């Protein structure tokens, strides 16, 4: 599976779903769409109906919370933990607090995780849930996620190898150069791997905000990554420059 720079997708990759190309997975694809949520799910069998129910459930929880707490959807800085909130909301708040961003920076990752975890509880041992480029991955064999980085010469040339003993995990990507979502930086791709998909999503946004035009900004972002507790590794692509930190295995594609 190719990981796009997203929630920050280029118009081309969004329209043609270039990043959804899957090779030799041995799994069956399912697609679920509801409002902004657009999932591509890989499992041993089709899970369309199950996944749709799960998406309805998790979206309803988030939407109801936003109705009662409008600031939740617009905040660009962390919000205080709400111990009375539903679990999915607490996960988003926690991810924001750990990384220094608003809770909605974790929304795609938390939905992917929510759906993936509950499909596994329902008996689907191997599950990959992709939500606009943010991945929840649970496999019993190694797999490689290729990195799409727009117009960078490095786009599609390298991948992140994931091993079963480190799964389930999240692999999430953000970009300041591609697509319509808000980013304060200019990286083509900032990819974060973490056991918690919500945290990986929020961390990708936070680190992406740090990458500017200078070469030093990549190192600054990697230095910040070291301070974010709970993430396993980071890959940054900006133009023809590449930086990486942590326990992460890069392979050529």
Tell me what the structure shows.
It is built from seven helices and twelve strands. The protein is α+β, with helices and mostly antiparallel strands and 253 residues long. The protein has a single domain (2-252), classed as T-fold (Roll), CATH 3.10.520. The strands form two sheets. The protein has an eight-stranded antiparallel sheet with strand order 2-3-4-5-8-9-10-11, with helices on one face. Strands 1-6-7-12 form a four-stranded mixed sheet, with no helix packed on it. The radius of gyration is 17 Å and the shape is globular.
Q: What is shown here, in short?
A:
By secondary structure, this protein is of the alpha+beta class.
What's the tally of helices? 7
The mean pLDDT is 88
Q: What general outline do the C-alpha atoms trace?
A: globular
- What proportion of the residues form beta strands (DSSP E)? 25-35%
Distance between the termini: 11 Å
Structural class: alpha+beta
Question: What is the total number of structural domains?
Answer: 1
How do the helices and strands follow one another from N- to C-terminus?
EHEEHHHHEEEEEEHHEEE
- CATH architectural name: Roll
The strands making up the biggest β-sheet line up spatially as: 2-3-4-5-8-9-10-11
Estimate percent helicity: 25-40%
CATH-assigned fold name:
T-fold
- Radius of gyration using CA atoms only: 17 Å
| Poorly predicted tracts of residues | 1-16, 179-183
Going by CATH, the homologous superfamily would be: ApbE-like domains
User: Which CATH top level class fits?
Assistant: Alpha Beta
Q: How many strands in all?
A: 12
The main pleated sheet reads as: 8 strands, antiparallel
């Amino acid at each position: 599976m190719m990981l796009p720079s997203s929630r920050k997708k280029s118009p081309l990759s969004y329209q043609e779903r270039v990043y959804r190309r899957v090779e030799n997975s041995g799994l069956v694809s399912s697609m679920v769409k509801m409002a902004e949520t657009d999932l591509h799910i890989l499992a041993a069998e089709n899970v369309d109906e199950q996944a749709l129910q799960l998406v309805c459930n998790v979206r309803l929880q988030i939407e109801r919370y936003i109705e009662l707490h409008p600031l939740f959807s617009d905040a660009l800085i962390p919000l205080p933990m709400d111990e009375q909130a539903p679990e999915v909301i607490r996960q988003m708040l926690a991810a924001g607090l750990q990384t220094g961003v608003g809770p909605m920076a974790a929304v795609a990752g938390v939905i992917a995780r929510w759906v993936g975890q509950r499909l596994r509880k329902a008996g689907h041992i191997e599950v990959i849930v992709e939500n606009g480029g943010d991945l929840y991955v649970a496999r019993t064999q190694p797999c490689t996620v290729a990195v799409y980085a727009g117009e960078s010469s490095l786009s599609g040339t390298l991948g992140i190898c994931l091993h079963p003993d480190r799964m389930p995990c999240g692999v999430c990507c953000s970009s300041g150069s591609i697509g319509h979502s808000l980013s304060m930086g200019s990286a083509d791709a900032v990819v974060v791997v973490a056991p918690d998909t919500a945290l990986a999503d929020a961390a990708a946004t936070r680190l992406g905000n740090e990458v500017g035009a200078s070469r030093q900004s990549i190192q600054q972002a990697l230095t910040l990554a070291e301070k974010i507790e709970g993430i396993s590794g980071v890959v940054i692509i900006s133009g023809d420059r590449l930086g990486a930190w942590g326990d992460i295995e890069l392979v050529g594609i």
